[in-house]
Amino acid sequence: MNITHIIGNGFDINQGIPSSYAHFYEYYLQLVSKDDEPEIVKKFRINLYNALLERRTELWSDMEIALGKVTEEYDSAEDYNTVYMDVYNHLMEYIDYAYRFSDVANFDNPTKTLYQDLMKPWLHLTPSEIEDFDKLFVRVNDNRVKILSFNYTDTFNRISDLGKLAEGGVLGLGSSMTYHFDGILHIHQDIKNRNIVLGVDNVGQIANKKLAEDESVRDLLVKPQTNSNLGTTIDRQCREVIAQSGIISIYGVSLGKTDHTWWMEIGKRIKADNNVRILYFTYEKEIAQLAEIQKHTLKRKRKRELLAAIGIDEKSFKDYENRIYVNFCNNPGSQNIFNNPKKENLQDNFENVMAVFQKEGKVAVPAPKRQSLSGHDSLLLQPPVERLFTPRHYRAKNLLIDINKDPLGIK
Asked: Taking the model in full, what pTM does it have?
């Protein structure tokens, strides 16, 4: 049996890494403008902010949709490519710092906990659902575990010793069942190799139809084309993994349209084999307020959202619902790798990261107070920050992280 884990940014956030686009934009919109910075870049930050403001969510997929939408503001591919590379380079820098200057993992034995969840993710389901899995896969002796990550980071290896496990190495043994780890594939590349893939799923998501026809824009903005241009076989490898999966576990993803290609691949797989099962881990802000009898209704709703995203026609929902299992990973009392208590340090970690940027002079700091004409104190702010965020001093709050040196020894 092949077990495939599809991991999104929610995983990093749950480990305490401030990697949401809301965190990124608080950094991006407070960057100190350079003397030679083009005016179109300054304007772009405002245009992108406004495009995101319309959607009022905190999903990376919405930021990528916004990158396609703001093409309407540009007449030339050269101008758009200039501003795209500005957000691209700063995103890579921000994620790099967020990863390195965050205190992550808070388990007594993170490796053991992680291995258990990778081998048997269904153990967090209800007793009757666990029984279903045990019956279905009771005769499977040789099991392969693979991770497909949408993240730019190497968090799995940082919180465990997965990186020391050779591809094909044994994750664990149990009652005549062996679990081999077949490695991690980064669908959108990673910061370690200084290449990331950021943008839309297809040319139809580029609002400016003139720019959508320009190959230089498509090279940057259309993710499948970007991966192809990088000379990697990552898309083909990921398709092959999904096509051979018996269990697909989805965690920390938004099911956004900018990764439509991959949701369709999952849909093709569940249509092709009646034995395929999907586990969908979701984070529910209001879960603690729900009675147990209300959670079943919410699970059905999440199942149908997933089925719609993977291309299952609404008329066929009932044919597939019993093959989808939903787990609320932040259910009260849940203690597993998908509900790390370290996420409570998220804001402190963000303060650490921004304190480093301020120390290096990369983001704005409050200007000295001056007496305003009205007689009240005011702050001197740099545009476009004055329209978006008010600069403040960030304080490194976590004593485990020394912002005066690189905690991972990368620089």
From this structure: 0.86
